[in-house]
Amino acid sequence: MHMADALISPAVGGVMWAATAGLAAYAAKKVQSELDDRKVPLMGVLGAFVFAAQMINFSIPGTGSSGHLCGGLLLAILLGPQAAALTIASILTIQCLFFADGGLLALGANIFNMGFVACFIAYPLIYKPLTANSPSQGRIFFASLLAAVIGLQLGAFGVVLATLFSGISELPFSAFVLLMQPIHLAIGLVEGLITAVIVLFIMKESPEILQKTALGQPLGPIPVKNVFITLLIAAVLTSGALSWFASANPDGLEWSITNVTGAPELNVPAGIHSFFAEIQEKTAFLPGYNVKPPAEETAAASVGVNAVETEETAAWPAVDSGTSLAGLIGSVMTLALAYIIGKGLQRFAR
């Protein structure tokens, strides 16, 4: 659901940047009383895990589409909405700047739709009331499923509205929304299942994390070592190897655009869009979650002269050391950025 700049106008992109910056500043202010020497590292480790998990697109049967975990709800349940918002913003910023996943002009909209909706709407208004103060396994499962579905529906509708108000892509509202909402209903169901499984694991290993987070308290001297190690190993395995098994089908947004326009991508307008594209081209040293090919290989690929290479690209699983390297680097970068943000806010609060 990473929006490209071709979908968004400078005015709408600017508004979403401003709204996202304001919410991020609010989160940074509110989270300071919750941060301690256990929650800050947890922000980093969870950020690395969600970054890695987003590399794995799962197929949506019968559609030719795919989806991936957004992770905002999972982060909110385990970190609280404010720390989760800063962590998902770190993930999406790293993806945008260094992996060219989502446009730079659209970054504010992407953080809002994919992260802040889950953190500030789905978690406090749906998940938290349903699980109450003493959540059972059944409550957690149901609340995760419902909150994830509604969060994804709102996020997908946010993409449609941003596209509509931008008015630069000529995507008809009715056709676009009738594709975006159902496909993200299916993706939301899978996200809910994944979220429930992980939260139930945390509940078994260290239930104090869920209790302290629900109360908006620092984690304090609770046992978190097993959770840290498990999440770290999961991040390494997911980014380093499981990413090979990602579906090659287009994600829900690309699939919707393709079904409306006949093409998976839209032309990027000139002017300020080109300015942002040039910046992103310089910063994205691992575009598409892989090592950037030499210029001559890029030129050859663009004219489609190597059929063997095309077949290899379409192979599944796509065993590729470049993907593994990109995933591991991205996970480390996300871990570092989320940790630095958390540590900086912790020190600033003293």
From TrEMBL:
It comes from Sporomusa termitida. The chain crosses the membrane at residues 7-28, 40-60, 72-100, 106-127, 139-165, 185-203, 224-246, 325-342. Keywords: Cell membrane, Membrane, Transmembrane, Transmembrane helix, Transport. Its main location: membrane. It is a multi-pass membrane protein. Residues 225-346 form the PDGLE domain. One of its GO terms (cellular component) is plasma membrane. GO terms for biological process: transition metal ion transport. InterPro entries: CbiM/NikMN, PDGLE_dom. This is Cobalt transport protein CbiM.
